[in-house]
Amino acid sequence: MIQDIEKIEFQSGIIGFPDAIGQLPLMTLRASKIPPEVHRELRETNILNCGGVYGQMDSSAPFQYDQLRVFLTYDVVEITVFNRAAALKTAPDDKILRIDRFMAVLERFGKPKRKNV
Questions:
Q1: Structural domain total, the chain
Q2: 68 to 1, 59, 60: CA distances (angstroms)
């Protein structure tokens, strides 16, 4: 079954403690607003097969936190990365490299907007 991409959400930032995750800026791209370069990178990196949690949340603060959610017609792919730079150095396979590449495209596309809390 082929599913359409309904929405992409992306949060990224340096935080001092886990409770601050909800305060990170959130970038939301609705289906009709996803630029062609994001669609292309989504296909080339095969990001939909990279769901999961990568890296480790250090006991020391601050730490880098990245979360990507791709909402499909009938599913959601979630990718969470703690300390992306450190995870890249210790990556056992190429998934984290593909995730980093896709997140870099999102970061270049635009800065996340602050959530209304």
A1: 1
A2: 23, 23, 23
Residue 81 lies in a domain: yes
Global model pTM greater than 0.90:
no
Task: Write out pLDDT tens, residues 50-81.
Answer: 999 998 876 567 888 999 999 999 999 999 99
Q: Compute the CA torsion angle 15, 114, 102, 108 (nearest 10 deg).
A: -110
| Whole-angstrom distance, CA of residue 35 vs CA of residue 29 | 9
The domain that contains 35 carries what CATH number?
A: 3.30.350
Tokens of 111: 């800065």
Give the range of the structural domain holding residue 98, as residue numbers without chain letter.
5-109
Structural domain contains residue 116 = no
With H, G, I as helix, E, B as strand and everything else as coil, classify residue 14: strand
